[in-house]
Fold this sequence. Notes:
By secondary structure, the chain is mainly alpha-helical. Helix content is about 50%, strand content about 10%. The chain has a three-stranded parallel sheet with strand order 1-2-3. A three-stranded antiparallel sheet has the order 4-5-8. The protein has a two-stranded antiparallel sheet with strand order 6-7. The structure holds one RNA strand.
Amino acid sequence: MTPPRVRFAPSPTGYLHVGGARTALFNWLYARHTGGTHVLRIEDTDRERSTEEHTRIILDGLTWLGITWDEGPYFQGEYAGQHQADAERLLAEGKAYRCFCTREELDAQRVKAEAAGVGFHYDRRCLALTPSEVEKRVRAGAPSTIRFIMDDREITWNDAVHGRISFQGRDLDDFVILRSDNSAIYNLAVVSDDIAMRITHVIRGDDHISNTPKQIALYSALGHEPPVFAHVPMILGADGKKLSKRHGATAVGDYQEQGILPAAMRNFLALMGWSPGGDREIIPEDEMIRRFTLEGIQKKPAVFDTTKLEWLNGQYLSAVPVEDLLEPVKRQLSLMGVQANGDLRPLIDSVKARSRTILHVAEQVATRLYPERSKPDAKGQALILKMGPAFVANLDLASTALKALKPNEWEPERLLTTLKGVAEANNLKLGDVMQPVRVALTGSTVSEPVNELLFVVGPQSSIRTLSEKAQHWERDKNPA
RNA sequence: GGCGCUAUCGUCUAGGGGACUAGGACGGGGCCCUCUCAAGGCCCAAACACGGGUUCGAAUCCCGUUAGCGCUACCA
């Protein structure tokens, strides 16, 4: 069997939607699993809405996700000649006809049909035109479209995800294939291109199911075997409606900005509507490729759950080597306007286990870089109030003990014993010493273990910040 | 309205006629660990839409109902 050829065919009329990204992912996975070819085709036939900017964003998004293509990007606009030739061939062979009905006439019929509560069907009035009449109108310069003749036969196919699907030809319209400006309508363009590109498997969204019988009819009229179709289910918002702008972030770029790792996004997207079977959740790329099949694709739509995405991202964050996080964190810091000199790796390492996104990591790194800038958050303030004078007193005790440490003694083990010593000597619970230090340094009641925190912040910065804050809070009796 | 697709915990899903007392994961609740929070470990609550068949036996197969979604353009 020859290796499959699949394609991802976005239209550059908007950003790379997560649904589109998942379709691309499935195409890519299928190509890699089977040793086939992944073709990228930009469907830019809608001149009104297509932009180069959108094309670039889509390409960037795919690249970010690690989805590659072996051929293309092709631009559908470049194949207009072939589309037109195919339409005219169908016309010449009597499988299509010229239609002179204007948009206004058609709209009027449609409105009338809807008012009557019946589905609109083109009434084929132009099919009745004699060849000489057609000739006459064309010569007179009357604009016309080309309509494809749908016959009444049943059209069925064996969908790779849904199984057998069938439509009755009589329920389908004689649809337009070529506009009056000689540009192709989507259904013709797709079929024409898929034939030209020798596509064997069409993996695309569920919303194309109703286009499929038309396309199969076109394949047959053009004398080609249709490809295998695999219609993957939609992605929905939390309210069960098709995922859209009002659900919040829907573009892949949004998640990149929110600090999601591409590997996590890819893993999450793969699990939306596909399952390898069994209990696997975190699936490395090579395993994903090895286990991917069209049969494993779910029939029902999936709700996009950002909470689970963030959990997954957190898992990747803890597993990924610090080196891989260095660049994204630096990028984020500069976006935040935070100067970051020196080796960030120890900081990232000490903070990443507690983070769900790169954004969290960067924020915490910034705090450790400049602890003096931190302000107590709500829980930090609550702690200050609760402890009262003990807060500053304990801070002083810790501060004094830490100052006595020699520079070479500033390491996690020694820091821990020092603080434990402070607690014991003053008959305090360890937490009563640790928490004020933590809040002074980070503003938060949550962080890595305090001895590690002190270690990564370093002696000068720690001690300076501790005494500054102690003084500040001493003077200002109501710091919260 | 017509046509089509779909239906397992709140969410993502496992399940392919007996292995189902329906499994896992997120989220929720509890406990352990602990200087805090994550992580990790243990435990709890939580689902086969409904009605008919077929069968000795149905979450699994068939039919219907209901609900949701999609399409119904000289958009893609």
